[in-house]
């Protein structure tokens, strides 16, 4: 039976890869794509999510989530993803519209109406997920788990200490880690050990239409250490859902630094804690990563 999921996202070029894979894999059933502020503004992330669903002609609803973090002003990453968030590919004109302008309530409805527990897949800041868990704690038992991309057991990528998705709304992240819902964390650590070599781009481009589209986006993606390869962060969540046995996990108690002048947004991962609140993805073999990436791509048109 396919895994029913809700993707909470801020597309974003690596988000586009994750969404492409999720929409086409037979073992994944995308019930909703919900948008959030992050890589670009909420108007742009929502347009990008709608654009991807329309490009693939999928009957998957899109809802618009939170435009700003819980407390701080929003931060964006146009310098990485381009002004639109998905610069580099000319998508057809958009005709679709959102199912709901209240993403939190849209998620709640999907979860309540589902006949089996839903897996939440946040691949952007955690504002929507925090509000969902805070306002509707009664639905926690209907959430199978949260598989999120964010945080780091070592260095960050926005500051020395903090990874972007957590730094963009640290208070929301702390609410999620305090929620008691099972959480699997895919952080910078595992991604940085297995990037996508640039010499693989022609193979990706020649695989299918989706591969060609992704390469156009990837060529405009200016993440860290671009010349050494692409860090396709958010796609790891779908890889994990399909092939969890390929990944090494360790339990840890995760807290988020909320006050430090130089450490705000840092994820403190205590692997010795007696009460872990998350499973941390620590490792995937490089060859397994490449095989998994191309396997996911092969299901796309």
Kindly describe this structure.
With 301 residues, the protein is an alpha/beta fold. 35% of the residues lie in helices and 18% in strands. It has 12 helices and 9 strands. The chain has helices spanning 13-24, 42-55, 78-81, 103-113, 127-135, 164-167, 170-177, 188-193, 201-207, 209-218, 235-242, 286-298, and strands at 3-9, 28-35, 62-63, 118-122, 143-149, 183-186, 247-256, 267-270, 278-284. Strands 3-2-1-4-5-6-9-7-8 form a 9-stranded mixed beta sheet, sandwiched between helices. α9 packs antiparallel against α10 (209-218). The radius of gyration is 17 Å and the shape is globular. The mean pLDDT is 95.
Short description:
Residues 5-290 form the Inosine/uridine-preferring nucleoside hydrolase domain. Helices cover 35% and strands 18% of the residues. The model has no long low-confidence stretch (mean pLDDT 95).
